[in-house]
Specification:
Length: about 120
């Protein structure tokens, strides 16, 4: 389940499509994420007192059996850079976790075969 929430900004189909194109393959790569709930929150911060660029924050929350509450948040002044940073960070974290889970499952399989 993939859900996108917009805070302090109007919903955009362009940003939603970009998130589906960037995060979709990452989440499909790991089979243990199929039953997880994925919530992506996009937030824009803009100061009403000072002139300057907008600041975007994108956070992802994974909830399920393998990950109880995994939260990752990336920020940038460009929304597409924030999406890119989030995708790279999530890919790295999930690949390290996948290696750890796979290594632990191989050890238990070898132990069961030896018994």
């Amino acid at each position: 389940m993939f859900k996108i929430v917009f805070k302090n900004m109007k919903s955009s189909t362009l940003i939603s499509a970009n998130l589906h194109n960037r995060l979709g393959p990452v989440l499909e790569k790991y089979p243990y994420l199929k039953r997880h709930r994925v919530t992506v929150t996009i937030e824009m911060e803009n100061s009403p007192f000072q002139a300057g660029p907008d600041f975007y924050s994108i956070s992802v929350m994974l909830t399920g059996k393998t990950f109880k509450d995994l939260r990752m948040k990336k920020s940038s002044d460009n929304i597409y850079l924030a999406v890119s940073d989030l995708t790279e960070g999530l890919t790295g974290y999930l690949s390290r976790t996948h290696e750890r889970l796979f290594k632990n499952s191989r050890k238990t399989i070898k132990f069961r075969e030896a018994v």
